[in-house]
Amino acid sequence: MGALVSAAVPRLRCPEEANVRAPESVLSLHLGFIRAGADVIEANTFGANRRKLAEHYLEDDLVAINEAAVKIARDAREVSGRDVFIAGSIGPLGDAGDSREENVSVFEEQATLLEGRGVDLFMVETFYDLDELATAIAAVRAVSSLPIVALLTFDEDAQTLSGVSAEDAAAALATQDVAAIGANHGLGLQAALRAIERMGGSGKPLAALPNVGLASLAGQRIVFPHATPDYFAEFAAHARELGARIIGGCCGTTPTEIAAIRRAVDEERSPSAPLVMRHREIFIAAAEPESETLLQRKLRAGEFVVSVEIDPPRGGNAQAMLELARALKESGHVDIVDVNDNPRARARMSGLIASATIERVVGLETIPHLTPRDSSIAGLESMLLGAHAEGIRNVLAVTGDPPEAGDYPGATGVYEVDSIGLSQMITRMNAGEDFNGREIDAPTSFFLGVAVNPAADDLDYELERFEQKVEAGARFAMTQVLFDLSYLDDFVRRLGGSCPIPLLVGIFYVRSYQLALRLHNEVPGIVVPEHVQKRLRDAGPNAAETGLALARELLEASRERAAGVYLIPPFRQPHAALDLFGGQTPRI
After folding, report:
1. For the segment 358-387, what is each residue's pLDDT rounded down to a tens digit?
2. Can you tell me the distance from the alpha carbon of 451 to that of 501, in angstroms, rounded to the nearest whole number?
3. Going by C-beta distance under 8 Å and a sequence separation of 6 or more, which residues neighbour residue 514?
4. C-alpha–C-alpha distance, residues 253 and 261, integer Å
5. What is the pTM (predicted TM-score) of this model?
6. How far apart are CA 344 and CA 369, in angstroms?
7. Could you give phi then psi for residue 282, rounded to 5 degrees?
C-alpha cells in the first residue's frame, strides 16, 4: 500500500497521511486488489503509530489516520460485494533507543485503535529484529485476541538483518500465540521462498508476501523490477508446495501480480487446502467466476438463437406479460425474449424492471433494450446497477424511437449520450468505472448488444457507427427488421466478408399488405422491398398466410447467414410468434 499510495498521491508526508488527505485513492487501491482476487487486504496503517507519525508532525492525527484507514478498507469490502478480510498492518518502530515498556505502549495504542474500528486480524510485518517482533506480538495480544500473522524480513541467506536464521526465528515464533508466521518485504520472491522453506518445521501455517524485487531510484521515482505475472504464478505454486497458506506481495506488488497468484492458487486448490481466515485458522477461498448467460453460451458454441420481442405493459400489472413469457418458454422453440424500452416513445413499464420480473418469475432469459432517450447519464447508470443486482446480464443499447413519436407533444429526448456513448458506459461499468472513470462499487458483467441496420439509406455512415459500437465493447448485434436478406449479405460483404460479432436478424411477422406499406413508408429504418409488397398485395385475403410463409422463409435463410433471429409477432397477437415453428398458437 505504501509504495502505491505514494505514487498515486503527490506530496504526502508519509503514505498513511493519504487516509485523511486522499481517501478515494486508498479506496481505489483496495478495490483493485479485491477485484484481482485478494481474500485479505491490509489497511493503510503500516507506519501509523505515534512514534512514526511524530517524525512527520502527524502525531495529533494518530486516531484519525488509523480509524480512517480501517473505514476505507471496510468501505472497499462493502462496495466490492466480496467477503474479504481486513488486516490491521503494524510495522516496526525502528528506534532501539526506547525502553521495551515504551515500545509496548506504542504498539498497544495502535492495536487498540485498529481493533476498535473493526479489523479482522493483525499483520505484524516487515520486522528486522526478532526481539522487537516478539514485543509487538505481546503488545497486540495484551489488548486483543484477534489472529496475528507475524512476518520477518530475510536476506538472500534466509537471515534477518540482526543475523537470526529463518529456522531459529520459526522456532522462536512457534511458541508465540500467533496464527501464522512467515516472510515479507525483503529482496524478492526467491528470498521469500528460501526463508519459508527453512521455517517449515515450526508447525505453524506459513505466509509469503515478498517485494516484487529490489527497488531502485529513477529520478524521484521508486522503480521495481518488471517481474512478469507468470513469474508470480510460479512463485505462488512453489509457496503452496512449501506449505504457505497466505500468499501475496509487498512493495511493488500491483493487482496484476495478485491476479496471477489468484489464478495459480485456484488451479492447484483442493478441498484440503482452500484461503479464508477464521479466528486462529487460516485457509484460502476462491471466488467463483460468474457463469455465462444462455445467450453467451449459445453464441460461443455456434448454436442458433431464437428470441421473441415483447413490449412491457402500459400499466402496473405484469400478469399478461408473464403468461406470454411462460408460453414462449414452454413451447421449446424460444431461447430468450428481448424486451422493448418505451417503444414508440410511449411510457410503459421499464424494460429493465420487466426483464428482471420475467427472469425471476418465469426463469426465461431476457435481453432488455435500453435507450438514452429518457434518462441522464446518472439515471442510466442507476438503472443498470439496479438491474445488475437483480440478475440482468444481457443488455441491448439502442437509440430508441424519437420522442416526437410519443404521447407528449413537444417532448424532447435527454440524450446526454447516444447509443455509442451508452455502449461505452456499459463497458466502463464492466471495468469497474462510471462514465467519467471513477470507481464504482464493483464491476458489472453485462453482455452488451447493439443495434445495426444493414438496410440503412446511408450505409457508409451505418458501417462507421457499427465499427464504433464494436470498439465501444459490443459483444453481439441485433439488426433492424429485414424483409430481404440480400441487405445483410451486402452489409457483411462491406465488412470484409464476415461480421466481427454475432448477428441476430430481425424478422417481422406481417399479416397484411397495409401494415407492410405503412412500415415501409412511415417507420424510419425499415425497408419493405417492392417484391415483398407485391407478394402481400397479390395475396389479397390470404395475406396473413403469405406473411407467415415470408417470415418462415426468412427464419430458415437466417440459419445459414446469422447467429440467430429475433421475431416480432403481429400487433396485439404476441403468441402468434410460435406460428413460425408450425405449432398451434396457444390461447391464454
Report:
1. 999 999 999 999 999 999 999 999 999 999
2. 12
3. none
4. 11
5. 0.58
6. 13
7. -125, 125
pLDDT digits (tens, 9 = 90+) for 264-318: 888 765 443 333 333 333 333 333 445 689 999 999 999 999 999 999 999 999 9
Distance CA(543)–CA(535), nearest Å, equals 8
Backbone angles phi, psi at 375, to 5 degrees: -140, 150
| Parallel, antiparallel or unpaired: strands 275-278 and 281-284 | antiparallel
Dig out the grid coordinates for 357 from the structure: 420480473
d(CA 554, CA 558): 6
Residue 577's CB: how many other CB atoms inside 10 A?
29
| Cα–Cα distance measured from residue 29 to residue 76, given in angstroms and rounded to the nearest whole number | 9
The CA–CA distances, whole Å, from 375 to 241, 400, 412, 415, 446 equal 54, 12, 11, 7, 19
Could you write out the DSSP letters of every residue in 546-587?
HHHHHHHHHHHHHTTTSSEEEEEPPTT-GGGGGGGGTPPPP-
Contacts of 181 (CB under 8 A, 6+ apart): 149, 150, 151, 152, 169, 170, 173, 174, 199, 202, 204, 205, 206, 207
Whole-angstrom distance, CA of residue 253 vs CA of residue 83: 22
